[in-house]
Amino acid sequence: MQNVNTLTILVMGKGGVGKSSTINSLIGEQVVRVTAFQSEGLRPVMASRSWAGFTLNVIDTPGLVEAGYVNHQALQLIKGFLLNKTIDVLLYVDRLDAYRVDDLDKQIIRAITNSFGKEIWRKSLLVLTHAQLCPPDGLSYDVFSSKRSEGVLKAIRIGARIRKKDFDVCILFQVIYVEHMLDCLNKIDKLVCPHKAFNQNIVCR
Predict the structure, then answer these.
(1) Is the pLDDT higher at 2 or at 149?
(2) Total Cβ atoms within 10 A of residue 197
(3) Residue limits of the AIG1-type G domain (predicted)?
(4) Which is nearest to 81 in space by CA: 10, 186, 167, 173?
(5) 115, 116, 119, 124: CA torsion to nearest 10
(6) Residue spans per domain, the chain
(7) Average per-residue pLDDT in the chain?
C-alpha cells in the first residue's frame, strides 16, 4: 500500500469487545457512540476523516453474535455494505481477558471466512482490548498475553483454512494490545498495559 491517499479499515468482532471504542481512538474523537448496557448498532457505519490529502475510512459493524449463535444476518448486512468498497485492513477485535478460545469463537471465524473468503484474513490485524488485566495464576503479563494471542491466531489460521507455513510468513498477522483507559495502574502505580502509546487514546504493541 505505497503512495495511497485513502485507507479503509473494517472492524469486526463480537459485541462488547471494544470495537467502537477502538474506532473512536483511531479517529481521535467520538464518532461512534459507546453506551454501557445498550445493544450495538444494527447496521455498519463508516466514519471518514481527511488530513493533508489523506483520507481514513473506518467501518464499525454490528456484533457477530446474537443469542449465543453466529449472527449471519449481521454478516449479510456487512457484506452488502461493502459492495463497491475496497478493504485495506481488517481489524478483528476480541478481549485479552477472555482467557480462552471457545467453539463460538471458531464458528465466528469460519463464518467470516465463508462470507468474505480467506483472503480477508491476509489483510488482518488481531486487536485484543481490555489489556489492563492482571494475569491469573501468577503468570507474567508477557506470558499471558502471548498465550492468549497465540490461541486466537491459531483459531484464525484453522478457521481461515490457511496453511501454517503461509500463515507464519504473513506480515499482517500481528497482534495489537489495546487499553482505552490509560489511567489503569497496578499496585505500584505503573501502567498495567506495559506498551507504548499509538496515540493519546490507545495503547498498542
Answers:
(1) 149
(2) 13
(3) 4-205
(4) 10
(5) -100
(6) 6-203
(7) 82
| pTM, 2 dp | 0.84
| pLDDT tens-place string over residues 62-113 | 999 998 999 999 999 999 999 999 999 999 999 999 888 999 999 999 999 9
CATH 3.40.50.300 fits 6-203, yes or no: yes
Sign for the pseudo-dihedral over CA of 157, 162, 164, 165: negative
In percent, the amount of the chain with pLDDT more than 70 equals 79
Sign, CA dihedral 11-158-179-51, equals negative
For residue 196, pLDDT over 70 is answered with: no
Higher pLDDT among residues 40 and 15, named by residue: 15
